[in-house]
Amino acid sequence: FGFIFFQHEKQTAGKRKNKNQKNRPKITQSMKRVLFSFGKIKIRRKAMGELKNQMLRLMELKNFSRKTISCYLMYMKEYVGYFKKSPDEMGQEEVIKYLCYLKDEKKASWSGINIAYSALKFFYTNVLDKEWNVKKVPRPKLNKMLPAVMSRQEVKSILESTSNRKHRIALMTAYSAGLRISETAHLKISD
Questions:
Q1: 137: exposed, middle or buried (C-beta count within 10 Å: 0-12, 13-18, 19+)?
Q2: How far is 175 from 12, CA to CA, in rounded Å?
Q3: pLDDT for 11-67, tens place per residue?
């Protein structure tokens, strides 16, 4: 997301190379696609690149997965692009507006909104050392999905669907004990 923090200019011919490329953390191909997929915009680098590098270093130190790093960077890029300001100039009001934008306009899933919340919270608390007020910026509550409950007739038809005695016993054991498929497959007689 660091490239969005920079002042944008229309792209002109030629590219400048950054002299400090050796000191940057290693970035995977998937992260490069997120970082540099902004389009035909030339970027003049300022101190904001340091914030991006600091966030990358902190995420690597905390041993975040590549997927988490990629998602956090994507949501930070989108957040900064939405307001077209540096995130150190923004605060809780912008975070709330952005989360509402994700929910209302972009129709993002609750898990996506939760990831965006986590990315913003990580950035503001760990990179900028700002206080994160949970009362003012609440975490979205995820909807809990209840499992579908089968009727007795449906259970009976599933258990009677196989003529193989071994398979029927496995189905009966899995259903009565609430086992997962992998747990059922690894059962032993001693269990």
A1: middle
A2: 65
A3: 333 444 444 444 455 555 555 554 444 433 333 344 467 888 899 999 999 999 999
Cα(43)–Cα(80) distance, integer angstroms: 14
DSSP 125-185: IIIS-----TTTSPPPPPPPPPPPPPPHHHHHHHHTS---HHHHHHHHHHHHHT--HHHHH
Judge whether 173 and 184 are in contact, CB under 8 Å.
Answer: yes
The structure's pTM equals: 0.56
Question: Which of 23, 54, 48, 73 shows the shortest CA–CA distance to 126?
Answer: 54
Q: Determine the Cα–Cα distance for residues 104 and 102; give it in Å rounded to an integer.
A: 6
DSSP class of 43: E
Count other Cβ atoms within 10 Å, centred on residue 166.
8
For residue 127, give the nearest of 83, 76, 174 by alpha carbon: 76
